[in-house]
Amino acid sequence: MERCILPCSFQVDTGVIIHWIQMKGLHVHSFYSNQDQLGNQHQIYRNRTSLFKDQISRGNASLQLTGVKVQDEGRYECFISTINRNKTSYINLKVDGMKGDSSFPHCCFTLASFNQMVNDSNAHNSAIIQL
C-alpha cells in the first residue's frame, strides 16, 4: 500500500493544536489535548491518516497518508496553533498514477508556509516557499 508523507513543522511550544484540511473542504486529521481528534474526519480519510506522535514534541506535524489514490491529489492545509503563534502551511499533492513497473502511485508535492506570531506586539507574516 503506497503512502505519502506531507511535511509540516513548527517551532516547539506548548498547547499544540494541529489541523490538516484538504482544500476541497474535507477534514483530514486533527490533534489536540495530546491525542488524535478524528470525530470530524471525512470518511474518505478514515483509517488512512496518522501523525508521528512521538515527534510532535520536537515540532513535527507531518501527516502520513496511506492507501494513496489519484483522488487524493490537491491542496492540503496544515494549521498549527500554539500558545505563542500560529502557522499555516499549504502543500500541493500530485499523484502521478502508476510509476514504471510499480502498481503504486507516485507522490510529489510543493510547499508554502506562512508564520504568524500572535503574542508579539511587532507581529508580522513571513512567507517561505520551498519547491
UniProtKB/TrEMBL annotation:
Gene3D superfamilies per UniProt: Immunoglobulins
Subcellular location: Cell membrane
GO biological process terms held by the UniProt record: cell surface receptor signaling pathway; cellular response to lipopolysaccharide; immune response; negative regulation of T cell proliferation; positive regulation of T cell proliferation; T cell costimulation
UniProt keyword annotation of RNA-binding present: no
UniProt keyword list: Cell membrane, Disulfide bond, Glycoprotein, Immunoglobulin domain, Membrane, Receptor, Signal, Transmembrane, Transmembrane helix
Domain Ig-like, residue spans: 1-94
Signal sequence range: none
Main localisation: membrane
A Pfam family reported for this protein in Swiss-Prot or TrEMBL: V-set
InterPro entries, per database record: Ig-like_dom, Ig-like_dom_sf, Ig-like_fold, Ig_V-set, T-cell_Activation_Regulation
Membrane topology: Single-pass type I membrane protein
Record's GO cellular component terms: external side of plasma membrane
Keyword Electron transport: no
Name recorded for this polypeptide: Ig-like domain-containing protein
Provenance organism: Acanthochromis polyacanthus (spiny chromis)
